[in-house]
Design a protein that fits this description.
The protein is of the alpha/beta class. Helix content is about 35%, strand content about 15%. Strands 7-6-5-8-9 form a five-stranded parallel beta sheet, covered by helices on one side. The radius of gyration is 19 Å and the shape is globular. The two termini are about 25 Å apart. Bound molecules: aspartic acid. The site of aspartic acid has 8 residues, from helix 6. Its EC number is 2.1.3.2.
Length: about 300
């Protein structure tokens, strides 16, 4: 007998803390069902989706594209460089327009933290909003695909030791993941340059030097240095970063046999992660990309149902 996962229904997906544990697990399990070939049963004949990306993206943008097309949605193209944004149109007015045109769901990535507040308070904007990343704020859909990848590997989160390593202060992926991993029972550790770590993260886990963590953890989650969110005043050496804070081949050799390496990508090879490890046996980076499509199908289904 095949037991179907519980159907989750959401108006928007903006942050991970707004989700209940039941919703998180429901979305992960539904993502797994889509991966095994499950089909969506739409309630209307036609749905419109648009992807409004105001910051660069490859995986999030294109995996939403693929997820939308797999679900049979009509995808309304939008390119901020050729839209009325260039005439000074605000994000609010762009989304208002999409909603007025009948778009059901807008996936938005924007450089401003909490950009979505004014959109969801609007009485006129009707469409659902999915946060595809807000500045250094949150990245809830990346978090869900990361959780799906960990769950697929270990079958649970309880007491799993997960290290989040790198530019934590500026990483929205780190912010979303630390909150949800702790909530689901994992033990979170941090490592990386101390100047990019903040004491406010101590409620979720503890900072340790990478060499003390490497042989203990089940999941090593490496992060890119978010240069675009730095003021450019600090000097940066790729070699020194890899040596001091990166996962080198030598360090990875000390990991437990079952331990895996994750990274939200784009990976700066030989900076935070040694090149041979990116597609090595422990790496789940390609799986993360693939799972991104399926978990995003589950998220789209939840806001459209
Ligand atoms: N792709 C992820 C993000 O948009 C990670 C990164 O850019 O480093 O936050």
């Amino acid at each position: 007998m095949i037991i179907q996962s519980e159907r989750i229904s959401l108006k928007h997906l903006l942050t991970v803390e707004a989700l209940t544990d039941r919703e998180v697990m429901g979305l992960i399990r539904r993502g797994q069902e889509f991966k095994r070939g499950a089909k969506w049963m739409p309630q209307k004949e036609q749905y419109f989706a648009t992807n409004l990306f105001f910051e660069n993206s490859t995986r999030t943008h294109k995996s939403f594209d693929v997820a939308e097309k797999k679900l049979g949605l009509e995808v309304i193209e939008f390119d901020s460089s050729t839209s009325s944004v260039q005439k000074g149109e605000t994000l609010y007015d762009t989304v208002l327009t999409m909603s007025a045109l009948g778009v059901d769901v807008a996936v938005i990535r924007h450089g401003d933290e909490n950009y979505y507040d004014e959109l969801i308070q609007s009485k006129t904007i009707q469409c659902s909003i999915i946060n595809g990343g807000d500045g250094s704020g949150q990245h809830p859909t990346q978090c869900l695909l990361d959780l799906m990848t960990i769950y697929e590997e270990f079958g649970h989160f309880d007491q799993l030791k997960v290290a989040i390593v790198g530019d934590i202060t500026h990483s929205r992926v780190a912010k979303s993941n630390m909150q949800m991993l702790k909530r689901l029972g994992a033990k979170v550790y941090f490592s990386g340059p101390p100047q990019w770590y903040d004491n406010e993260f101590e409620v979720y886990g503890h900072w340790l030097p990478l060499d003390e963590l490497v042989n203990q953890v089940d999941v090593m989650m490496m992060l890119r240095v978010q240069h675009e969110r730095h003021d450019g005043s600090e000097s940066f050496s790729k070699e020194a970063y890899l040596r001091d804070y990166g996962l080198t081949v030598e360090r990875a050799a000390k990991m437990q046999d079952h331990a895996i390496i994750m990274h939200p990508a784009p990976v700066n090879r030989d900076v935070e992660l040694a090149d041979p490890l990116v597609e090595g046996l422990r790496s789940r980076i390609v799986t993360q990309m693939t799972n991104g499509v399926f978990v995003r199908m589950a998220i789209l289904e939840a806001v459209l149902n």
